[in-house]
Amino acid sequence: MHTDTALLAKIAAGDEHAFASLMDQYRGRVFSHVLTYVKVYDEAVEIVQDIFVKIWINRERLVEVKDFPAYLFIVSRNYLVSAIRRRVLERTSLQDQDMLHEIIRPDNTLEAKELEKHIALAIEQMPPQQRMVFTLSRNGQLSQEEIAGKMKITKRTVKFHMTAALNFLRIFLKNADFGAVLIIFFCRFL
Questions:
Q1: Which of 82, 100, 159, 178 could be stapled to 88 by a disulfide with Cβ–Cβ 3.0 to 4.6 Å?
Q2: Predicted structure pTM score
Q3: CATH number of 4-90, picked from 1.10.1740.10, 3.40.50.620, 2.40.40.20, 2.30.180.10
């Protein structure tokens, strides 16, 4: 059995057998996670396939991945959130949009709503370019390369603005006395 690192290197080089092996190893975990949110077997199967297709398409990046389970979780979470948003946006009623909010935010408490307001306020106070990078990354779910291309700046500049934005949010929220809620927020945005 190959280590994840060796498999990732082979996959990055285009080895389909290594990719199949990696998929076999992780597909079940991803499926269980997706199914808990979408609740529809066929839809969960389709989303899992799309997640692994996305990983295959972006396989060159895999050589940079140090912790594949964490990387897979982030890719899965982002894709799942996008899929749920798309599903809700296809429906036109306000009830469906409320459902999206509930699905994505199972921890939807008064404290979480207050945190959301503070985050929006913090984002408004960021310098324009920093705010744009953060918004494209988190709301637009664009990669650093995609943001760099769209904004006509270097990937290094994107990374700098992203780090600055997260630090700004951490300090802003800490000063707003959100304590433990910060952990939840930063786990969502890693």
A1: 100
A2: 0.48
A3: 1.10.1740.10
Whether residue 93 has pLDDT greater than 50: no
- Euclidean distance between CA atoms 35 and 162, whole angstroms: 31
* Locus of tokens 């990983």: 55
The C-alpha atoms of residue 164 and residue 53 are separated, in whole angstroms, by 32
- Distance CA(107)–CA(149), nearest Å, equals 35
142/58 Cα distance (integer angstroms): 13
Which of 52-56, 97-101, 153-157 shows the lowest per-residue confidence on average (mean pLDDT)?
A: 97-101
CATH class of 107-188: mainly alpha
Residue 8 CA, chain-centre distance (Å), reads 20
Q: What is the DSSP string of 83-151?
A: HHHHHHHHS-SHHHHHHHHHHH-TT--HHHHHHHHHHHHHHHHS-HHHHHHHHHHHTS---HHHHHHHH
Place of tokens 């529809």: 40
Q: Give the residue-averaged pLDDT of 105-120.
A: 62
The answer to whether residue 153 scores a pLDDT higher than 50 is: yes
